[in-house]
């Protein structure tokens, strides 16, 4: 799209005459109106693309909208991201349009036509991608989009917001080492997700810096859900040389680890230290409250929404990538190895909300 | 509005001439356009109301929207309700517009103008109310609205969806009585919320049917959050004649009770049985997994969205009230009184997700 942008501007009148249609037909297509025959629509989109047409100053709608698109609404995460976009929307008098694409990892053509009609100020995509054709349509209408990509696997040429996964894995593991733990297990996410690998590398680097080696038997890949944390922990804690600490790849996995410990009659943190990842609200509500790596989900969504508003003011599509920092939040699920009653009294977390 | 509805229909032309403005000015007001002077707008709204004007067959928008309005986005609840509305929207090719009113318990005039411009198929209000003036505006534009009111305190004349709070309190308490518990404490919600009182009455009735009396010292009012469950439980469990079971008014309060028990060195369910309320996802993730009263939040939101679509097809605003059933979900936080290891092994809940 680079050259397109530098190309001389084409007028809609020119596009109309080349397409052999009226000006109003072209603007119907621009605005995603349904009453244009498919072949005509395709021909016009082709010309808009070929000339790199971009609506210069989109008239700001009277009821401005921000769109947020999820592949799947999942209660642990999605609410934090919705809240972040909502914060920016509320502060600027906008409303938020929510779409769930369901099974497909990218929204369909029907969705984009709706967006063209609604003329939002921008689109935030969570964990989803856009086919080039849809990207071009949004670009030609000057509707910017940003991908929130906590998985850490951004598409080139698309602005995205993520967080520092490697540093998160490092901080969690260092905390456990400082508490004297040496047999530390890790249950990370799926092997094919960049964020799982980044966190695992952070884990390994922390061990390495302390002159320790990761025992391959203590490295597990899970799926970020409670069940996988529970199953891996039952297996890990059943070993004679069981780990004294487990770093879980998500708070949900960590909750599964807590339940496995309870079932096996192990006290957390006295017999086992547990660190989660994400710091979603349930991490504060568990007993004991979870020590976890705070992933700034709300702030990531706020940043994505602000990027959209900034992108509107430039005619140039940036390919910015922003990674927000992660930080360790120490609560009651970790203690010095072998410590008894080392945990702060009063049961912190639960009371603190 | 009853008489209004039965009144002979007035035409927009009549309204225009009575207001001394052009027809297009009237339709601008109908569609919430900003470019009409305030006094004119007020005069026209007045005439529309006086004549009980109602847009007869609203043109279905090309990108149909459902609106959901929250007083406050709270991660424990809101996600379930959003998901319910989203389910219906997705099934019918609609998008969902999300608005958070923040501190105010009803959306403002700015919000309603946005709604008039967006022309949604309907509006779902969560825990919020509409001033009569806004109700009239939506009614005259034939934009139906439904209130999701889990608090059980519906406004007359507004369609609403709730759930069976009294029956929920009854079922939770009966379950504990059947397990042999006699010293049963209850931590319910705020004293001024109908749902708290309904659940408490269900609790008292269950005791009464079993020939038991509620010990006033074991009846507490909380605020539905983790902290109040935690604080009340610390106090209740510190008594010489401590209860053997606690029925909490929400899952969050129940999580606070679990943490209090852990801090006091009490095992759940061996030393203390705990029942929650709501059955939000974290109830399955806690250790032990919570026995709780399932409040069908997703289904309540789905029902509200379906009511909107039905209301569109009638010219008459119904004042329907639907209450969906609640049901007890038995997990691992309750056991026979004094039982040891009575709980199913394997740690059910956490593994089951």
TrEMBL record, chains A, B:
<dbReference type="Pfam" id="PF00356">
    <property type="entry name" value="LacI"/>
</dbReference>
<dbReference type="InterPro" id="IPR028082">
    <property type="entry name" value="Peripla_BP_I"/>
</dbReference>
<dbReference type="GO" id="GO:0003700">
    <property type="term" value="F:DNA-binding transcription factor activity"/>
</dbReference>
<keyword id="KW-0804">Transcription</keyword>
<feature type="domain" description="HTH lacI-type">
    <location>
        <begin position="10"/>
        <end position="56"/>
    </location>
</feature>
<dbReference type="GO" id="GO:0000976">
    <property type="term" value="F:transcription cis-regulatory region binding"/>
</dbReference>
<dbReference type="InterPro" id="IPR010982">
    <property type="entry name" value="Lambda_DNA-bd_dom_sf"/>
</dbReference>
<keyword id="KW-0805">Transcription regulation</keyword>
<keyword id="KW-0238">DNA-binding</keyword>
<dbReference type="InterPro" id="IPR000843">
    <property type="entry name" value="HTH_LacI"/>
</dbReference>
<protein>
    <submittedName>
        <fullName>LacI family transcriptional regulator</fullName>
    </submittedName>
</protein>
<dbReference type="Pfam" id="PF13377">
    <property type="entry name" value="Peripla_BP_3"/>
</dbReference>
<dbReference type="InterPro" id="IPR046335">
    <property type="entry name" value="LacI/GalR-like_sensor"/>
</dbReference>
